[in-house]
């Protein structure tokens, strides 16, 4: 179980690296996913990821791309600690001997277990982040103004209690179970491939960055539709979707067709590689540091 504790401790380091590198891309993604449908004959608010980025920096400044970062940054240490700790728990459950090599399917299972465990930490931060990001873009569907993360949490609790803060839990599970399974399994598979025979999984910094970046792309490639539904649901006015995910899905398909489920794909993929390369590089660096003293 020492590996569980160790992964729990260093997971936050990787998470902070992910947020710092990837948050601007995330802001663009959320604004694209939640922008209102244009009236007939009108142009959409943003024509794409690059246009969204340009408009945001021109009207609000570069640092507006980091709007809402406080919530995920504060939450990311326990979130990634729980994720990588959960991966280690999944490994512990499945191995008969600590020295046994994990198969690809076992790593899929471990990632899925970790995805379930992170939801309790993930949902409130995601809800707060998304509301602040769309408010800055000037098309907040709720019609409520928020002065920061704590103000969002207070108003959501006053509006609907804990249930309002945790709106989007099912959508987050739908997104994170397959995404986390892909994330861990692809990273561990690439680690073995890049390390080669007889190197005990030791990677160069460049190989670590490459494996982490590709694992991040695999993660997001399987969960974009669920992420679109989650963003819509978490930023909607109270009572807009009484049927939850089913109502959001029906609206997206009715108004935009299947392609609407992949809105934000470009900024997600642009973010996925550098953010997750930074995550695993920070994680492996922290693991190496702590193992020097164990």
Task: Give descriptors for this structure.
ATP:ADP antiporter activity, 73% helix, 294 residues, globular
Topology:
Blueprint (H helix, E strand, L loop, with lengths): L1 H33 L14 H12 L9 H25 L9 H33 L12 H17 L3 H27 L9 H17 L2 H12 L9 H12 L8 H27 L3
Helix pairs in contact: 1-3, 1-10, 3-4, 4-5, 4-6, 6-7, 6-8, 7-10, 8-9
GO molecular function: ATP:ADP antiporter activity; O-acyl-L-carnitine transmembrane transporter activity
Membrane topology: Multi-pass membrane protein
Pfam families: Mito_carr
Descriptive notes:
With 294 residues, the chain is mainly α. It has helices at 2-34, 49-60, 70-94, 104-136, 149-165, 169-195, 205-221, 224-235, 245-256, 265-291. It is globular. The model has no long low-confidence stretch (mean pLDDT 86).
Radius of gyration: 19 Å
| Shape designation | globular
Major sheet summary line: none
- Note poorly predicted spans: none
Helix content: over 70%
Structural class: mainly alpha
Strand element count? 0
Helix segment tally: 10
Mean pLDDT reading: 86
End-to-end C-alpha gap: 14 Å
- Order of helices and strands, N to C? HHHHHHHHHH
> What amount of the residues lies in strands?
under 5%
Solcar repeats: 2-93, 102-193, 203-289
Organism: Pristionchus entomophagus
Keywords: Membrane, Mitochondrion, Repeat, Transmembrane, Transmembrane helix, Transport
Protein name: Mitochondrial carrier protein
């Amino acid at each position: 179980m020492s590996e569980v504790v160790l992964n729990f401790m260093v997971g936050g380091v990787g998470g902070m690296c992910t947020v710092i590198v990837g948050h601007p891309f995330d802001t663009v993604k959320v604004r694209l996913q939640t922008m209102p449908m244009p009236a007939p004959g009108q142009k959409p608010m943003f024509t794409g990821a690059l246009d969204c980025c340009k408009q945001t920096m021109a009207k609000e400044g570069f640092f507006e791309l980091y709007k809402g970062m406080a919530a995920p940054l504060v939450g990311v240490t326990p979130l990634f600690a729980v994720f990588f700790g959960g991966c280690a728990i999944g490994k512990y459950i499945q191995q008969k001997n600590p020295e046994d090599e994990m198969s690809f399917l076992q790593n899929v299972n471990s990632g899925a277990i970790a995805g379930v465990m992170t939801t309790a930490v993930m949902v409130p931060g995601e809800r707060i982040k998304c509301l602040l990001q769309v408010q800055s873009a000037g098309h907040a569907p709720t019609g409520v103004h928020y002065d920061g993360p704590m103000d969002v949490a207070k108003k959501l609790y006053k509006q609907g209690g804990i249930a309002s803060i945790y709106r989007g839990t099912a959508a987050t599970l739908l997104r994170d179970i397959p995404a986390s399974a892909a994330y861990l399994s692809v990273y561990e598979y690439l680690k073995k491939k890049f390390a080669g025979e007889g190197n005990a999984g030791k990677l160069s910094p460049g190989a670590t960055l490459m494996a982490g970046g590709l694992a991040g792309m695999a993660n997001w490639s399987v969960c974009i539709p669920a992420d679109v539904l989650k963003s819509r649901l978490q930023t909607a006015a109270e009572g807009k979707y009484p049927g939850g995910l089913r109502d959001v899905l029906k609206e997206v398909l009715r108004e935009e067709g299947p392609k609407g489920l992949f809105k934000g794909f470009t900024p997600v993929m642009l973010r996925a590689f550098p953010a997750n390369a930074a995550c695993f590089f920070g994680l492996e660096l922290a693991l190496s540091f702590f193992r020097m003293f164990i």
